[in-house]
Design brief:
alpha/beta, UDP-N-acetylmuramoyl-L-alanine:D-glutamate ligase, Protein-Tyrosine Phosphatase, Chain A, 2 domains, 9-stranded mixed sheet, 12 helices
Length: 362
Amino acid sequence: GEMELGSWYCPGGITAITGSNGKSTVVTLLGKILEAAGRDAVVCGNIGTPLTAVLHRITPRTEVVLEVSSFQLEETLSFHPKIGCLLNVSPNHLDRHGSLAGYRAAKARLFAWQRPGETALLNADDPACRVIGRKLPGRVVWFSRSRPVVGSVLQGGHLRVTLPDGSGTICASTELPKQGLPHEENGLAAGALAALLGVPPDLTGRVLRAFPGLPHRQQPVSTIHGVTFINDSKATTLEAGIGAIESMPGPVVLIAGGRDKGSDFRPLARLVGKLKAAVLIGEDGPKIGVPLKGRVPLHRAADMAEAVRKAFDLAAERGVVLLSPMCTSFDMFRDFEERGDRFIEAVRRLESPAAAPLGAGG
């Protein structure tokens, strides 16, 4: 594959990051941290620009921050990053990999050809990561919100680096611009990776405090008559959706649906206390409604404009309208970005009732 080929001719050290959720955020964060530290860094891979397209910019002093997907890992033959990071493993792309075991095996290939002097960073709170991390060829370090590990930890409300060759406080969890488990985990992963690359924890903390997040990932859009609209269109998995719902401060009207990737939506049943209603869209929206039926008011919408209108009508003051689809976008949209943009456009129309009707425009 392209990534494998690029790695053969890459003179810089590669830090490769994969996972079901959070890849692009951690890759972007690490790039910004290295930039703040005055290092020569190139961010590339599954996030947008192929590794082979930036080889001309890479020298032996360059830190290559590479986002890697399970599809790319399937095609590896000898790929061995200087540092490999696995953020989490949850059911995803089962339509492609056939089973969770097949998907997990694809993710584990990130470490398959690592050498003894190379490092693996994994999530100690993720059961699949713990299994994968038991027998790896290189050095293994961890990040965790709940247990003492060598790597990075959440301790006393602070994100801390706990490496033998460098430890210290990154920042308080309350200082992160977005609150909740996914944001703490992303911060811990980025902090550990930066420390492994020689960046002091306090510098990492300065970058984390100032990082607003990427578009379409729990992105605040507007507050209208006390109702806050959040665009989380990138949430194409159940786990990402659950994380978003749990991170919201008030009662949530959820907009969800699209094309399912083989997810089991039954765990949504434990979130009925957070959900005021759900507006279902797309070809597999009804699947998401099954575990909520009779416990949460369910509504259908034919398009995003209708979904936003209905969700606004259902929301209470100080409530949240959350687009967190837990499905791919390909049944209705070109990609998750277009889906998120349509959500933002519909919210903007609510802000200005005199504007053109919903759905109009070029």
